[in-house]
Amino acid sequence: MPAPSPPTGGRTVPSPYDADPRLGALVVGRQELEDRVVELGRQITLDYADRPPLLVGVLKGAFVFMSDLSRSINLPVELDFMAVASYGSTTRTSGVVRIVKDLELDLTGRHVLLVEDIIDSGLTLSYLRRTLLARDPASLAVCSLLVREHYEVADLDVAYTGFRIPADFVVGYGLDVGERYRNLPFVCALVGEPEVQQPS
Ligand code: IMP
Ligand code: MG
What we know:
Layout: E1 23-28, H1 30-47, E2 54-59, H2 63-72, E3 78-86, E4 97-101, E5 111-119, H3 123-133, E6 139-148, H4 153-156, E7 160-165, E8 170-171, E9 187-190
Parallel strand pairs: 2-3, 2-5, 5-6, 6-7
Antiparallel strand pairs: 1-9, 3-4, 8-9
The structure holds inosinic acid (IMP) and magnesium ion.
């Protein structure tokens, strides 16, 4: 079978995105995503065998990853979601974050696994980490589908990383630009500037 080529990323049926000029090179293909999510799920299953985690997804970007990841974890997990928005009008976060939708579950004494779509500057993550730690979880670890290459993962203390990717703005598999492209089943680069958007 030929390798998937951008921008279809392995789609076998025609899609309205096929001829979309804003979709550039494939960054992570459908099969790679599937395989890596299974691996992450297997690792998390081993690491949390005696303490089933509470998965906390960061909306909206993490919803696709969270859905697949949760089904790859062979433990009785619980799930909750929060939504954050970044103040300011840049395409990337300003680091000043506010909670738009808070969690419904109490984190006290829970083993929390924070599930993110992408860690870019790490500012959103550091805000979330501080906020969640203040709620007295028994433990807090981070699982991010994507991490920008220019950051040392150790610095950010990300226990589980799907893929390290270059600086290009990417869309698909939950990630958007202006709310579009979240349902692409692969991750690809965006052609041109992302313009002003609310990080999500
Ligand atoms: P950070 O605070 O700079 O780490 O930004 C994290 C957030 O910015 C992510 O959760 C995304 O919502 C958004 N973001 C950063 N880079 C991208 C990208 O390439 N595509 C889509 N969203 C992005
Ligand atoms: Mg996000």
